[in-house]
Write a structure and sequence with these properties.
The protein is of the alpha/beta class and 257 residues long. It has one domain (6-256): TIM Barrel. It has 12 helices and 8 strands. It has helices at residues 20-30, 44-53, 78-83, 94-99, 104-116, 129-133, 137-148, 159-162, 181-199, 201-206, 217-224, 241-252, and strands at residues 6-10, 37-41, 58-61, 88-91, 120-125, 163-167, 208-212, 231-234. The chain has an 8-stranded parallel barrel with strand order 1-2-3-4-5-6-7-8, surrounded by 7 helices. Helix 11 (217-224) links the parallel strand 7 (208-212) and strand 8 (231-234). The protein starts with 5 loop residues before the first strand and ends in a 5-residue tail after the last helix. The structure holds 1,3-dihydroxyacetonephosphate. The site of 1,3-dihydroxyacetonephosphate has 14 residues, from strand 8. The site of 1,3-dihydroxyacetonephosphate (13P) has 14 residues, from strand 8.
Length: 257
């Protein structure tokens, strides 16, 4: 099955209610780009307000706790974000792994909790500059993903609907320099082979693999032309409707032929 390209904005720790007008503009523009699936992951505080108004885009969260509830001050569960209107959650982002010491086992537990709450998940992976320089990027990412993803048995039947993998090399995030199309192509092909290994030919082939790390309107088309790139996870350039939808527009083109 050919899936629509998936363009997801990760607003990180940016956005107060003043940004709702931007989300509205993104939602309106997404209605004109129906060949692309556009989604936004704002901070928790904006999930419900954006969900309430959005007609086209799905809203998601940037993290969730691995337990259903309990004495965990400041945390939020998968069921709570789903209740606020989230349809998906980003997990294992390198900023959470770095800032909060999240390891693969915890990320996997979060993924299981999110799936149990009926959410779709975007599972992030990616190597540091040092790992790439040492020539071990592919090995590292395969290991990280294998340890962070729930096992095939713990996955719902519709794996390809519920799981997206985001390859985000840490050195490309927020630097203005995306990975080269060769590096992206090599890594996405390896991730595809791993997904087929883990989840079988039929499901593993259909899971979307998206790229993140300095995607902008002017490099998006080249990135989307790379085999096995099914969309983008966009940070800085998702904060304005103009640049974010410039990326969505680039995504609608290579898939039209
Ligand atoms: P930038 O697009 O700002 O590089 O961020 C990428 C990212 O981390 C998305 O999750």
């Amino acid at each position: 099955m050919t899936r629509r390209p998936y363009i997801v904005g990760n607003w990180k720790m940016y956005g107060t209610r003043a940004m709702l007008s931007e989300a509205r503009a993104i939602d309106r523009a997404a209605q004109r780009h129906m060949k692309v699936e556009v989604a936004l992951a704002p901070p928790y505080t904006l999930i419900h307000p954006i969900h309430r108004e959005a007609e086209q885009i799905a809203v998601g969260a940037q993290d969730c706790h691995h337990q259903d509830g309990g004495a965990h001050t400041g945390d939020i569960s998968a069921a709570m974000i789903a209740d606020a209107g989230a349809k998906f959650v980003i997990l294992g982002h390198s900023e959470r792994r770095q800032d909060h010491g999240e390891g693969d086992a915890l990320v996997r537990a979060k993924a299981e909790a999110a799936l149990a709450a009926g959410l779709r998940i975007i599972m992030c992976c990616g190597e540091s500059a040092g790992t790439r320089e040492s020539g071990k990027a592919v090995e590292f990412v395969k290991q990280q993903l294998t340890a962070s993803l729930p096992s095939a048995e713990a996955m719902p039947a519709d794996i390809a609907e519920r799981l997206t993998v985001a390859y985000e090399p840490i050195w490309a995030i927020g630097t203005g320099t995306a990975a080269t199309t060769d590096d992206i192509g090599e890594m996405h092909a390896c991730i595809r082979a791993l997904l087929v290994d883990l989840f079988g030919e039929e499901q593993g082939r259909d899971v979307r693999i998206i790229y993140g790390g300095s995607v902008k309107p002017d490099n998006a088309a080249a990135i989307f032309a790379v085999p096995e790139v099914g969309g983008a996870l966009v940070g800085g350039a998702s904060l304005t409707a103009d640049s974010f939808m410039g990326i969505a527009l680039a995504a609608s083109e290579p898939f039209e032929n």
